[in-house]
Sequence to fold (210 residues):
Amino acid sequence: MFLNRLDAAHQLAKALKKYQGQHPLVLAIPRGAVPMGLALAKALDASFDVVLVRKLSAPLQPELAIGSVDENGWAYLSPEVAAMGLQAPYIQAEIERQMETLKARQKQYRQVLSHVTVKDQLVIVVDDGLATGATMQSALRATRQQGPRHLVCAVPVASPRALHQVQALADDTVCLLAPQDFMAVGQYYRDFAQVDDAQVLAMLADHARS
Fold:
């Protein structure tokens, strides 16, 4: 159990201590992982940026991920999509809907946070937890395309299945908990309050001024 996202970040920092002093770049997946990524970057003396990806949601079930998409339009679809009988028009419409959100966030975030080059960097991609792992898969694939020299996936908690899937996409995976009875990320936090865009923008602005 983690008290909150900052507590999870501090525990992750201990597990990632081997990368301290190697000038890593921490990439956080907005929105929930932004406070974690900032705390992790401070603890590891690392650079910080965000990696913009969005979950693709199932019809009438916004919390159920059927895949994910990155800001360049690359989409990952879960193997369950075929079993659910989802048709191409719905999937394409969902990709376009999430791309609109990504473009809006990109415009907002880049007003206060400059892009950090990934190429040849030691990069740590962080999220607050993995349920299906779809969003992290897109984040890792998008980051890999930019040519990091070493790519790390860091999460406090994950379902065993999601953890197995992301391990194939990273050079190193650090996960503190992968319980067999996993049901939802939030059950492993005492405080798992939503992080909204206004909070993220304020955090990014504070970081840019520091």
